[in-house]
Amino acid sequence: MIQRISIFGVVGLLAIFFQSAFVLIESIEHPHDTVVSFCKAYYQLDETAKSYVTDQDKKEKIEKFYETQKQKANERGYRDNFLVSYLTKIHTETIEQTNQSAKVHIEAKRAAIIPWLRTRKMYDVDHTFSLVKKDNRWIIADGIGTM
User: Fold this and answer.
1) Is this prediction's pTM over 0.85?
2) pLDDT, tens digit (0-9, with 9 covering 90-100), for 37-51
3) Which domains, and CATH codes, for the chain?
């Protein structure tokens, strides 16, 4: 009886240990997570995309893209956010990484809604981003100009 309880106790403690270890590992920020989050926000016309860059020129490029998309939607008689795209089949590859910089390549499919056809069109997303680490957070340094 005592052996059975001790076996269940050891298994329970191991389960708690491994679950805690997996949670801690998952909470570490990786450069590819930053790239995926930025691309999702960028194509969904979400203002949080600007928080992934620090350079004012890059923020202005993002804002210009948003304004262009909103203008296209308004010209066609739709709401501002009607030309939102969603990423699917996301694949990232870290090309190189040091403690303070990284280069990440992303490939994905971008699903854009075509309202007048009531369908979606798929586009390929294929970009490489350079990232730097500032204040223990990954920031996109280069690669936005080619989007």
Assistant:
1) no
2) 999 999 988 889 898
3) 30-146 (3.10.450.240)
Does the pLDDT of residue 61 top 60, yes or no? yes
* Rounded Cα distance, 131 and 104, in Å: 8
In whole angstroms, how far apart are CA 13 and each of 2, 8, 18, 69, 103?
A: 16, 9, 9, 53, 39
Neighbours of 128 (CB within 10 A): 14
Contacting residues for 93 by C-beta, under 8 A, at least 6 apart: 32, 104, 105, 106
Residue in this structure with the two tokens 């080619």, named with its chain if needed? 146
pLDDT band at 75 (very low <50, low <70, confident <90, very high): confident
Rounded Cα–Cα distance for residues 112 and 121 (Å): 5
- First-to-last C-alpha distance (Å) of the chain: 65
